[in-house]
Design goal:
This protein folds into 2 domains: 10-73, no CATH class; 89-389, P-loop containing nucleotide triphosphate hydrolases (Rossmann fold), CATH 3.40.50. The protein is built from 10 helices and 15 strands. The protein has helices at residues 37-40, 103-121, 131-148, 179-186, 208-214, 216-219, 234-239, 253-268, 314-343, 374-382, and strands at residues 10-12, 19-21, 26-28, 60-61, 68-69, 71-73, 89-97, 124-128, 168-174, 192-199, 223-228, 280-284, 312-313, 347-351, 388-389. The structure holds guanosine-5'-diphosphate, magnesium ion and zinc ion (2 copies). Residues 97, 99-105, 151-152, 154-155, 202, 286, 288-289, 353-355, 357-359 line the site of guanosine-5'-diphosphate.
Length: 392
């Protein structure tokens, strides 16, 4: 059976976020740089417009050496584009959070789980869209925690190392190859997406000025996962009556939210009285550290097979979101909750742990993630890539 995935007539570059018609893509000569000066000087090859009226060409011939090439590059920033660019919807998911909130470990574990388990439960395939993603994920995320059993170094600032800004890009496509799956698919509005993940560095989020310069991707996002380390909240530390040092004592969780809101409003020209429609998933990270503060009967503690059902469990989702919102309010997060309510039309609360326990001297003995996929699944549900359902 053959499916016609919905084709777009434009694409958004996942590196510089410029929007282009499909026929505006450029190519890079794939020949040996010793042989062809186009290849040597990375001179973009622009296809003739009448060769490709409204579609994206898959290959062109180099105007210098005549060799064919399928390496697509962005006409604005010259970055190499994933080969699948333009085929599917572009979704850009950004993980936002203060320094030490757990963003890097979260992304590392989430992607691993999506590849190995979650996507197939929903009949999707999840695969890296380009070689850079494969090597960056291995180098900066996977190797440390899954191979060496060590924590990931703090993300370097994009100011110092431009490569930090490179997103991880994945294709998420519905497999649907039998009658039942194709029935499920027919009810979905979308069935494929290119998803870019950004890991932001704490330093880049320090001031609005820095966010503006480096984090254009925040206001261009299709969805935001906003991570909060519960131990960052004074009242949580007091309740646990431990001498836990917060990564940053003086930082209130609503400060980063205000800066994010201001950035999105300015970047997209949204007036103060209009709600922002980017969905925001607020997630408590590292919930393994606050076990004593969570009622053991709550859904948060369980995950029993809910992702095996192939739909987004709305009853479970609502229960968790209400629980976490109430927890945040009771821990002095009223202001945060109110700010979120008044600025974002679409928001929900989640709770997760990427590692399942605290590393000891930067060593991770065992990784037992819990509910890491929930915010991501909610975003997919919002974009109608997966269906929602209720328990009978
Ligand atoms: N207990 C616990 N600690 C975590 C978890 N995830 C991260 N951490 C700790 O928090 C530190 C900061 O996490 P990181 O992902 O680097 O934060 P980032 O600055 O937001 O990228 C790590 O070095 C770990 O020690 C978790 O799920 N549980
Ligand atoms: Mg980090
Ligand atoms: Zn050439
Ligand atoms: Zn670009």
């Amino acid at each position: 059976m053959k499916f016609n995935f919905r084709k777009k007539d434009y694409y958004i570059c996942p590196y510089c976020f410029s929007k282009h018609d499909l026929n505006e893509v450029n190519f890079l000569c794939a020949n040996d740089p010793e042989v062809c000066s186009n290849a040597k000087n990375r001179i973009p090859i622009k296809p003739r417009i009448d060769d490709n009226k409204n579609k994206m060409l898959d290959l062109v011939f180099c105007n210098e050496c005549g060799k064919e090439t399928n390496i697509k590059i962005c006409p604005s920033c010259k970055s190499e584009l994933p080969n699948s660019i333009g085929e599917y919807d572009n979704l850009i998911f950004t993980v936002v959070g203060d320094r030490g909130a757990g963003k890097s470990h979260y992304i590392a574990v989430l992607i691993n789980k999506l590849m190995n388990e979650i996507s197939s439960n929903f009949n999707y395939s999840f695969s890296a869209a380009n070689d850079e993603t494969i090597s960056k994920y291995r180098r900066d995320f996977f190797n440390a925690i899954f191979r060496k059993g060590e924590t990931i170094d703090s993300t370097r600032s994009a100011k110092i190392e431009p490569c930090v800004k490179q997103p991880l890009i994945y294709n998420f496509t519905f497999k649907g190859n039998n009658i039942i799956e194709s029935f499920v698919k027919s009810k979905l509005k979308n069935n494929a997406a290119t998803i870019a993940f950004f890991d932001t560095s704490g330093e880049d989020l320090n001031s609005e000025e820095a966010m503006k310069t480096f984090d254009k991707y925040i206001y261009s996002s299709s969805g935001i996962i906003f991570l909060i380390d519960p131990l960052q909240m004074r009242s949580v530390r007091q309740k646990l009556s431990k001498d836990i040092e917060a990564v940053d004592e003086d930082r209130e969780i609503e400060d980063l939210l205000s800066r994010t809101v201001n950035l999105i409003r300015k970047g997209n020209g949204i007036k103060i009285d209009k709600p922002i429609d980017i969905p925001v998933a607020v997630a408590l990270s590292k919930i393994d550290t606050i076990k004593p503060l969570i009622d053991q009967s709550k859904f948060i503690n369980y995950s029993g097979g809910r992702v095996n059902k192939g739909y987004f469990d709305l009853s479970d989702f609502e229960d968790i979101s209400e629980t976490v919102e109430a927890l945040l309010r009771s821990w002095g997060g009223e202001n945060f909750v109110n700010q979120l309510n008044s600025n974002f039309k679409n928001h929900a609360y989640f709770a997760l742990t990427a590692l399942g326990s605290s590393p000891c001297d930067n060593r991770i003995s065992e990784i037992t993630p819990h509910r890491v996929e929930d915010p991501f699944l909610w975003l997919l549900y919002k974009y109608k890539l997966i269906n929602g359902g209720r328990r009978k």
